[in-house]
Design goal:
By secondary structure, the protein is α/β, with parallel strands linked by helices. The chain has helices at residues 3-15, 21-24, 43-59, 74-81, 96-104, 139-148, 163-175, 187-195, 206-214, 262-276, 279-287, 297-317; strands spanning 32-36, 63-67, 89-93, 116-125, 127-131, 154-157, 180-183, 201-202, 218-223, 249-256, 291-292. The radius of gyration is 23 Å and the shape is globular.
């Protein structure tokens, strides 16, 4: 058989071999879905929509947001973990499902370490918020007030294991105080309870409480970080308030289902990082109190590892667990 014929036969054989989906088509070639594991209207949802709007323009394909709410973010995380690893389902998520829940729940239907990291979108400090009617105007006054009324002051959260819940436990451990937990399904609902007088204290993030604080509807006692928040420049830090080891921050990240191919991971990460670096996107992030980050997948891996250690210590010290 002549060489030219042998080459033609070989090429014909190669043509029928299966080609991985991500190599066949330019990604994306259809609708991309962002799963948000907390209710619409919260900061998690807001960030997903900012990104979705930009990415569907960049990609030339629709981006839809799907809320899968419940179990501290586990329902949305489970849906993502069992989605095809083709890049068309991504999880936009706060710390819980990535760095907290596997230390909190006795059994999960997914392994957070199996998710493929894309990027950390941004971070924000948590804040000690109180309802206006509570007669306290500083962190020290809050400590004294709670000590004077053990078990009579309550605090809100998005559920056991959510960052505000763990932050409240950190607060009680460090101050020797006791408060009653009032869990809810999302931060918007917690703020509604504060306005209704049903929640006294909420260790929510700058973003979620910013509009209500600016409107004078809730009071901010301290920013739980080493530096003041630009959006709340008049509010002291916990260091200034005399509690330098009471640090608590929230962040938001994107992950893909397990076994996403590395080349597709890098492609999707590059798209997200490009969008986060856009000046108008950064302006929108900062408008809701989020400081943009947009790190690489490797940087995200190291960051999540550190955060996991921080919250694991709080969970174990306070013997917190869920079935």
């Amino acid at each position: 058989m002549r060489l030219s014929v042998r080459i033609a036969v070989a090429l014909a054989a190669l043509a029928v071999l299966p080609v991985p989906l991500h190599a066949q088509d330019k990604f994306p070639s259809k609708t991309v879905k962002f799963i948000v594991p907390f209710p619409a209207g919260g900061i998690n949802d807001v960030l997903a929509r900012i990104l979705g709007d930009k990415l569907q323009t960049k990609w030339g394909q629709p981006v839809i947001i799907e809320q899968k709410v419940g179990a501290g973010g586990n329902i949305g995380a489970d849906a993502t973990a069992h989605a095809p690893p083709d890049g068309y389902t991504l999880l936009v998520v706060p710390p819980g499902p990535l760095s907290i829940n596997h230390n909190l729940y006795k059994k999960l239907s997914y392994r957070p370490q199996d998710f493929v990291p894309i990027t950390v979108l941004g971070g924000v400090a948590n804040v000690a918020f109180v309802r206006n009617e509570l007669p306290v105007h500083s962190l020290k006054e809050l400590v004294a007030y709670v000590k004077d009324k053990p078990g009579k002051i309550n605090y809100g959260s998005q559920g056991v294991g959510a960052t505000p819940h763990l932050t409240a436990n950190m607060f009680m451990s460090k101050t020797g105080t006791q408060m009653v937990h009032v869990p809810n399904r999302g931060e918007t609902l917690v703020y509604q309870d504060m306005l209704g007088g049903n929640v006294d204290v909420f260790f929510g993030n700058v973003s979620g409480g910013l509009a209500l604080w600016r409107g004078g509807k809730i009071r901010a006692l301290a920013v739980l970080d080493k530096k003041r928040a630009a959006e709340m420049a008049d509010v002291p830090t916990v260091i200034e308030a005399g509690m330098p080891d009471f640090i608590s921050t929230t962040w938001f990240a994107v992950v893909a289902p397990p076994k996403l191919p590395p080349d597709l991971q890098q492609q999707i990460a590059a798209a997200f990082i490009d969008v986060v670096k856009m000046s108008d996107v950064q302006e929108k992030f900062r408008k809701v109190g989020i400081e943009p980050i947009g790190g690489t997948p490797a940087e995200m891996t190291a960051f999540v590892k550190d955060e996991t250690g921080r919250w694991e210590a709080v969970i174990k010290a306070n013997h917190i667990s869920l079935d």
